[in-house]
Amino acid sequence: MIPDEERIVPEINSELCVRCGDCLSACPEGALSLGEEGIILDEEKCAYCGDCEDICPTGAIALPFAIVLAPLEDEEEEDVG
Ligand code: SF4
Ligand code: SF4
């Protein structure tokens, strides 16, 4: 289990958010809600899937980072067993 202080969750820029609600319907975990101050994220529910970032029309949501490791060409040919 990831400690709370190390949990990585989307960052929401309330100045860019136009409160369209698209991210609320896109979130498969029901982790987002709309409050008086803007979008509220329930960090416990967030699965860090990125759907909210993809659908946001204003770029108000950003995942801090996403790492995709692609195999190096040399590694694909090497016998690593
Ligand atoms: S990253 Fe996925 S689970 Fe987390 S708030 Fe966005 S849509 Fe919901
Ligand atoms: S999709 Fe983007 S602009 Fe729309 S409510 Fe969510 S954060 Fe705000």
What features would you describe in this structure?
This protein has 81 residues and is α+β, with helices and mostly antiparallel strands. The chain has one domain: Alpha-Beta Plaits. 19% of the residues lie in helices and 15% in strands. It contains three helices and four strands. The strands form two sheets. The chain has a two-stranded antiparallel sheet with strand order 1-4. The longest helix is centred in the N-terminal third of the chain and has 5 residues. The radius of gyration is 17 Å and the shape is elongated. The relative contact order is 0.25. The mean pLDDT is 85. The structure holds iron/sulfur cluster (2 copies). One iron/sulfur cluster binds next to helix 2.
Give the key terms.
binds iron/sulfur cluster, 81 residues, two-stranded antiparallel sheet, alpha+beta, Alpha-Beta Plaits, 19% helix, elongated, single chain
Tell me briefly what this model is.
With 81 residues, the protein is an alpha+beta fold.
Reconstruct the topology from this structure.
Layout: E1 11-12, H1 22-26, E2 32-35, E3 38-41, H2 51-55, E4 61-62, H3 73-77
Antiparallel strand pairs: 1-4, 2-3
Bound molecules: iron/sulfur cluster (2 copies).
CATH structural architecture: 2-Layer Sandwich
Counting helices, strands and paired strands, the structural category is alpha+beta
CATH class: Alpha Beta
Total domain modules = 1
Do you know the CATH topology? Alpha-Beta Plaits
Q: Approximately what portion of the residues adopt beta-strand conformation?
A: 5-15%
CA radius of gyration is 17 Å
Number of strands: 4
Biggest sheet features:
2 strands, antiparallel
How far is the N terminus from the C terminus? 30 Å
Q: Quick one: overall form? A: elongated
Question: Can you list the ligands bound to this structure?
Answer: iron/sulfur cluster
Strand sequence of the main sheet, in spatial order?
A: 1-4
Count of DSSP H/I helices: 3
